[in-house]
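U., I forgot to send this yesterday:
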Amino acid sequence: MRTGTTRRTGTTMTTETGEAGLLALAQWLSPAFPLGSFAYSHGLETAVAEGRVTSAAALESWLRHLLRFGSGRADAVLLHAALRGDDADGLADLARALAPSAERLRETEEQGAALARTVNALTVDALSGQAEPARPLPVALGVAARRLDLPPVRIVALYLHSFASNLTSCATRFVPLGQTEAQGALARLAPDIAATAAETEGADPARIASSAFGADLAAMAHETLPVRIFKT
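Result:
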């Protein structure tokens, strides 16, 4: 079994290698980590309210399109680029420009800021005063995860799984769906998550495109819903 050590690099403490790196990533992507992800539906609340997502099958289709052709794929490209060391501030500006609605921008900015703030508190040498600034979520995670001894495709796959899992939880509560059928839909998305994580490795962020227009329009319409449970 691999073991790792903590190494000081510059003004930060690098995360332990091997299993410890995987556990650190699992912690950052856990519902227990203070990102507030449960409060964001990514526009899914609109689709449920309008009767477009009323079953596990409809949820599965909705999430598959996000993962393969929409914001999930765009986030995967940005996360890969951040992991390989592309300019983080430039990627952050691109992520903001790609947000198709004010609420989507708010969602990625607020969660990214929460992640950076908490990871900084856990990993940055307090005496140095150095910390990563707030950035949109996939960029913030990519910068933080550079210190993990993990394959980029694995990091991206776990990020996408966390993204899909949170929306599955939203649908379970709001459609509502049974726990088993909702988890079955999430399980069937595993090949799509793996494929997107692999296909986006090495992709040029300048070529990011989306064809999940229904989901983007739902996110735009969310702010006008008369009753809202979720922030987005």
